[in-house]
Amino acid sequence: MAASPSPTLSRTETLNLSGLAVVCAVILTRSFENGEGEPLIASLCFSGLAFAASYAMIRWLGPTFVNAGLKGRDMSKVNNKHYLPECMGAICAVVYLFTIIVFILIPFYKDIVVATSGGGNRDVVMNIEYVQRGRLLHKFPHSKLASFLSAIISLHSITILGFGDDLFDIRWRHKFFIPAFASIPLLVVYFVDFGVTSIVLPTFLQPYAGRELLDLGVLYYVYMAALCIFSPNSINILAGINGIEVTQSIVIAALLALNDILYLTTPYPHPATDSHLFSLYFLLPFLGVSFALLAHNWYPARVFVGDTYCYFAGMVFVVVSILGHFSKTLILLLLPQIFNFVYSTPQLFKLIPCPRHRLPHFNARTGLLEPSVTRWAPDEQPHPVVVRALRLLARLRLLSLKEEQGLVQESSNFTILNLWLVWRGPMREDRLATEITLMQLVLGLFGLVVRHKLALLIFREDNLDLRSVV
Amino acid sequence: MAASPSPTLSRTETLNLSGLAVVCAVILTRSFENGEGEPLIASLCFSGLAFAASYAMIRWLGPTFVNAGLKGRDMSKVNNKHYLPECMGAICAVVYLFTIIVFILIPFYKDIVVATSGGGNRDVVMNIEYVQRGRLLHKFPHSKLASFLSAIISLHSITILGFGDDLFDIRWRHKFFIPAFASIPLLVVYFVDFGVTSIVLPTFLQPYAGRELLDLGVLYYVYMAALCIFSPNSINILAGINGIEVTQSIVIAALLALNDILYLTTPYPHPATDSHLFSLYFLLPFLGVSFALLAHNWYPARVFVGDTYCYFAGMVFVVVSILGHFSKTLILLLLPQIFNFVYSTPQLFKLIPCPRHRLPHFNARTGLLEPSVTRWAPDEQPHPVVVRALRLLARLRLLSLKEEQGLVQESSNFTILNLWLVWRGPMREDRLATEITLMQLVLGLFGLVVRHKLALLIFREDNLDLRSVV
Q1: According to its record, how does it sit in the membrane (chains A, B) (predicted)?
Q2: Which of B99, B182, B212, B416 has fewest C-beta within 10 Å?
């Protein structure tokens, strides 16, 4: 089933990838020749190039990774003797980082051309407004450069630390804090360059607080750090079956991008246009490299993504949402991850024994995945309170529990993947990945609707509501 | 001789490191309490903390690196059966990066306090001049933030790529271009944020050119990219004996820092003060982590530094010198590396066979290093032109050549380390490292004197000459 990927591209692949790369390069060049340099189109082209580069490099570098010891076996396959390259998300991260670094030139292109009189004399700066004739969509203030760079530094940091995790196999309780380190650049630059730590209070709370804005001060940094820790880790623990790390990331990125597009297509330029352009510039290339990875990681997987990818994906979401000031929207889109984390806590905090791997159990006879279980020996029964809690969860259909003569035999492991199998019965690996992904998509779409339709109930204005901002 | 380092710190080491860390932390806190936040003192404290952190982590993580396959044997020792941790420079790089990221807060501290009215309202910005009473030394313009961040991104990139090199053992002809990739962030941000591509022409050329400044345009970027490629690689090829990679880097960093201090101690604030403060902020923590590495890499080495360190060191020099606009000074300090590179070209470009390793030959009987040689079989004699060139070099004492009956027997390998051994005779590894380091130091000091005393002959004004700038 799961075969090691050939380190060379097939003829069709080479043709398709080269074709894509050429088309992207041509559009990119032409958009510059027209003096347009429309950043969004450029971003799409860069994303196409990033897809092609990642796709090819994942194939070419597979054996190199295996030789360096970055390899693993697929535990949910019948024939799993040989090793597959592990940590291929590192390739995506590096391609992504170089793409986004080169891309910086584009949104600032107009500013550079306008602001420099020939030989790069930066003293003569004309107001961009005078020259700009297009929509606000074109505009990208120069002050955003620091955001751009701090976002890149945080993503760099998470790549280095994530790669270290994959290589050195850091313990779970240590690696939980890896994203905290990577959040430092983001928080430091946020502090230096923005320092906005106020949030809008819901209307029903405003009479009590006596104000509309609440300055959280240091707490705001704690909140941002918590989000930086949670998002990457939450992606990392919803894992274990082929493709699931990548598909959930693609869904979240696509929904964030959809949300951005809503702001860019309002009849009048929206004040948050810049933030959402910024967000799109980071999300589109991420989608590019993720699809390249998915092509190799989808069932039956020919490569593994590694913790690097999960951390990296989670961090991309955090940097765009923090620097774009829509972190609450991100939380809304992470609902399945939040559920999975909360649901996992009994095992994460060792209230229930937690085996090294909790991925669904592969039944080699049927070829289907079944919920994996924690077995309870007769002499190592859970605490009576735990037994009662387990029974309650089982009654609520939040657990599969097997008891015999008053003794707990086995309980399913506390992950959303196992729970889904409890609900829906055994199924093949790719079907499980598809269903979970669809669930993430439907919940996310629903979340966005709630976000924009119902926000007016608890906040004075929705970001998409123009009456209050025009 | 060379023993694997103990993964725990001795009691004395723990005491000393903790003491150092506490002292640094106390000074740091007190300087903030005084409302001073003097960035240079803070930078020294951060460097001390970086030293302590690297020192401890090099010890703690040694076995982890060995287990992950990052290990090597010391070829110049009698008892070299066991493996030493390789690539420990990666630890230094990561510690350095996090140090410098957190440090960003300091130079901007005053600006933040001044510019924000309480709750982080960035709209009310007061001119820093009104509040600042101290010397210009205190001042750090906010516009420097982008330089800071782009420098960090370049260093991040070189760390990722250098680590990839150490892990995947990339071929020489490919890895030569690794720094080129890492230079992209620097060049992109330079283009976006500065765009100054003019250089001052030497006075004797000015009548011919009819101007004082020459705009190099694109060529300036080629020049910067070339420097980015050369500096890291030149450190990387002056390697092969215990400690030499670190000591040469320390000497270059110290001389650059000395050069910076010259600008900060002029009787009147020098216009380039900011650039040189910026440079010091990057060099001091680099010295911190380098000394921690040297303590373990000096003869007899207990860890190896890896290509990561060499690339990283070279890139630190490039970013400070490019963003500080003193790249010519860097070239002056890299003279031994330039000589080593030019001298190596016959082998690098395969005019003379180039063995995998060209490090000096260890004579196990005497315990001394001797020049390593390329042997010429009677039926594989060099081309007559090459023979003539070899003889010329030998006569100039730039080569040791052994001939017998008109046939070339062996010629010493083309590295400065072997040449030094040809000149000075066999010597112990640490003595060779010391002598080469001293040579680098003396040449560098001489270079700085030439730079500041003789610059007036070919340029209208020296940077340290104040008559023209006050």
Answers
A1: Multi-pass membrane protein
A2: B212
pTM of the model as a whole = 0.88
Tokens describing residue B134: 């101290």
Render pLDDT for A424-459 as a digit per residue (tens, 0 to 9): 999 999 999 999 999 999 999 999 998 888 766 666
From CA B466, how far away is CA B457, in angstroms rounded? Answer: 16
Task: Compare all CA atoms of chain A with the CA of B104 and give the residue at the minimum distance.
Answer: A188
Instruction: Retrieve residue A181's tokens.
Output: 């380190």
Could you say which of B68, B184, B192 has the minimum Cβ distance to residue A108? B192
A101 Cβ contact list (under 8 Å, min separation 6): A152, B153, B157, B184, B185, B188
Q: How far apart are CA B276 and CA B270, in angstroms?
A: 10
A446 to chain B, any CB pair closer than 8 A? The answer is no
- What residues of chain A lie within 8 A of the CB of B60, using their CB? none
Q: A217 and chain B: CB distance < 8 Å anywhere?
A: yes
The rounded radius of gyration (Å) of the Cα atoms in chain A is 24
Distance separating alpha carbons of residues A20 and A462, to the nearest angstrom: 39
Restricting to B residues 416-445, those with a Cβ less than 8 Å away from any Cβ of A are none
Q: Which of residues 226-265 of A touch B (CB under 8 A)?
A: none
State residue A307 phi and psi, 5-degree precision.
Answer: -65, -30
Q: Among residues 175-214 of chain B, which lie with CB inside 8 Å of chain A?
A: 181, 184-185, 188-189, 191-198
**Site of tokens 């082929």:** A242
Question: Tens digit of pLDDT for each residue in B316-364?
Answer: 999 999 988 888 899 999 999 999 999 999 998 888 888 878 899 999 9
B188 vs A102, A164, A181: nearest CB: A102
Between CA A28 and CA B300 the distance in angstroms is 55
- Give the residue from B66, B111, B150, B160 with the most A CB atoms within 10 Å of its CB, the best one to mutate: B160
Q: How far is CA A147 from the centre of its chain?
A: 19
pLDDT of B34: 66
Cα–Cα distance for residue pair A238/A19, rounded to 1 Å: 35
- Lookup result for tokens 């559009």: A27
**What value, to the nearest 5°, has the Cα angle with vertex B279 and ends B278 and B283?**
125
Neighbours of A169 (CB within 10 A): 12
Report the amino acid identity of residue A75: M
Place of tokens 């606009």: B325
Residue A235 has pLDDT above 50, yes or no: yes
If 0-12 CB within 10 Å is exposed, 13-18 middle and 19+ buried, where does residue A398 land? Answer: middle
Query: What distance in Å separates residue A208's CA from the closest CA in chain B?
Result: 20
The arithmetic mean of pLDDT across residues B195-206, rounded, is 73
Mean confidence (pLDDT) of chain B = 85
Question: Is residue A450 within 8 angstroms of chain B, CB to CB?
Answer: no
CA distance A410 to B293: 52
Residues in chain A with CB shorter than 8 Å from the CB of B108 are: 192
Angle at B193 between CA A38 and CA B108, to 5 degrees: 125
Q: Which of residues 42-61 of A touch B (CB under 8 A)?
A: 61
Give dist(CA B182, CA B229) in Å, integer. 9
Chain B's closest residue to A106, CA to CA, is B192
| Residue B163 to residue A163, Cβ atoms within 8 A | yes
For residues B285-295, b (16+ Cβ closer than 10 Å) or e, as one string?
bbbbbbbbbbb
Sequence-distant (≥ 6) Cβ neighbours of residue A465 within 8 angstroms: A456
Residue of A nearest to B163 (CA): A160
B31 neighbors B41 (Cβ within 8 angstroms): yes
CA A46, A49, A50, A51 torsion: positive or negative? positive
Q: What is the pLDDT of residues B243-294, one digit of tens each?
A: 999 999 999 999 999 999 988 887 777 778 888 988 999 999 999 999 999 9
Contact assignment for B153 to A156 by CB distance below 8 Å: yes
pLDDT for residue A372:
94
